[in-house]
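Input chain follows. Return structure tokens only.
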Amino acid sequence: MNGTIGSFSEIAAFAHEVAQDAGSQALQWFRRPIDVSVKADESPVTEADRQVEEAIRARIAGRFPEHSIFGEEYGIKGSFDAPTWVIDPIDGTRSFISGSPLWGTLIALSDNQSSQLGVIEMPALKESWTAAAAAGSWFNASDGTRAPCRTSDRSKLSEAIFYTTSPFYFSDDEREPILEISQSTAMCRFGGDCYNYGLLASGHVDLVIESKLEPYDFMALVPVIEEAGGVITDWEGKRLTLASGKRVIAASNAALHEEALLLLSR
């Protein structure tokens, strides 16, 4: 892939810049009156979601016209056989429309359907995480400092801080093991969307489990978690790709991941 699109560091810098610009654009609508529509899957969408994704697509197409682009609002342009940018203009639209700052812009680049770089941009917080395969995971703070990420060494459920966006996102058969896990951990909190995974990469959160996710929700998270030393898979323990299903588990280390998977498998 590098031979056709330049150095990987240049690509990562480009992705980070695009995510920052997209976040700045989204902020123009944040905490202001905005029309909200409901999509076929009953999730909300705003004009901000659509216009920000259009802007991201235009930037990518202008720089890498041979690449495919897959986004939440406009689907796939091209083929997954080519290097594919995977984008979510506003991850956490419910947070966005209700004034919570815990929404983000997600950008990933996949090759052979596996994520090679990822950006989690939190515009309202002025924080972000960037990661690329074999190049580490980095936290970019609001004061402009940049620091490498490392997940925690808490390896038991009884010690773990567990986050999930909402208990209502789980089906009836999924909810029982999630309840058992929440009662087995040291702390359980709800909310956060993509922010939870950044907190996990930085060692503040130890376990995140979710359902009803799509590739544009999780592809950017994969390198951020893995390059920080964590584990992120589906509920069967399989590595996440563009073909993965909707269930995702991220843990600070392999031991905690395995213990949580055992409960999910019940």
